[in-house]
Amino acid sequence: MSQLAVVEDTTGQTEAARILRAAWAVLERSHFRSLKIRQVLTASGTSASTFYRSFPSKSHLLLALLEDETARGDRRLARWIAEADTAEGRLRAWLTFNIRTIYRPELAERARLFLDSGLLEELPEDVHRLYDVTGKRLVEVIRGGMAEQVFRAGDPVADAAMVRHLVHGLLSDGLNGRLDVPEEQVLHTAFDFVLRALRPTSGTRESRTLLALP
């Protein structure tokens, strides 16, 4: 059960919601460069004991913020994917949604916040669960492409994992200033690479079927 769900099952619901709203306000004022519990306490008008009743540590607060951010991002991603009318278009939508994080300052600032090493060390399972949310969307995209015979038959979960590793590397390099390549070039190269990996290869039954289609 998520941190927020635990809070909502108790009488601390209003307290937790107020603290989260205050935390977002503190982050926005600092352009997502700083989040100190003292600042959150002041902004929310709550005591330390009230804070720790809802969030046992700063990492738990970050996790709740990440959960909130992930839920909103997933809704946007779902709309992007739904607007595409082909399997290839849905794949490109997924890649675009993720890669643009590097090149949009407001998105990059938020993403860097959740690269906090303490968060991953203290709550690794919860963090990976949230990271898997966009990954599940990619699995759906690849599985749909396989069903339409646009992508070769295979394991959509394993294929999605490989694509996610590629994108994770791009995000890591980009957010840490190690990717000096224009957005369109990165997107084009990544899309072309992934598409070539997923498309049926010459001589396979899938490719022969596609060639036979009118």
UniProtKB/TrEMBL annotation:
<dbReference type="InterPro" id="IPR036271">
    <property type="entry name" value="Tet_transcr_reg_TetR-rel_C_sf"/>
</dbReference>
<keyword id="KW-0805">Transcription regulation</keyword>
<feature type="domain" description="HTH tetR-type">
    <location>
        <begin position="13"/>
        <end position="73"/>
    </location>
</feature>
<feature type="DNA-binding region" description="H-T-H motif">
    <location>
        <begin position="36"/>
        <end position="55"/>
    </location>
</feature>
<dbReference type="GO" id="GO:0003700">
    <property type="term" value="F:DNA-binding transcription factor activity"/>
</dbReference>
<keyword id="KW-0804">Transcription</keyword>
<protein>
    <submittedName>
        <fullName>TetR family transcriptional regulator</fullName>
    </submittedName>
</protein>
<dbReference type="InterPro" id="IPR001647">
    <property type="entry name" value="HTH_TetR"/>
</dbReference>
<dbReference type="Pfam" id="PF00440">
    <property type="entry name" value="TetR_N"/>
</dbReference>
<dbReference type="InterPro" id="IPR050109">
    <property type="entry name" value="HTH-type_TetR-like_transc_reg"/>
</dbReference>
<dbReference type="GO" id="GO:0000976">
    <property type="term" value="F:transcription cis-regulatory region binding"/>
</dbReference>
<keyword id="KW-0238">DNA-binding</keyword>
<dbReference type="InterPro" id="IPR009057">
    <property type="entry name" value="Homeodomain-like_sf"/>
</dbReference>
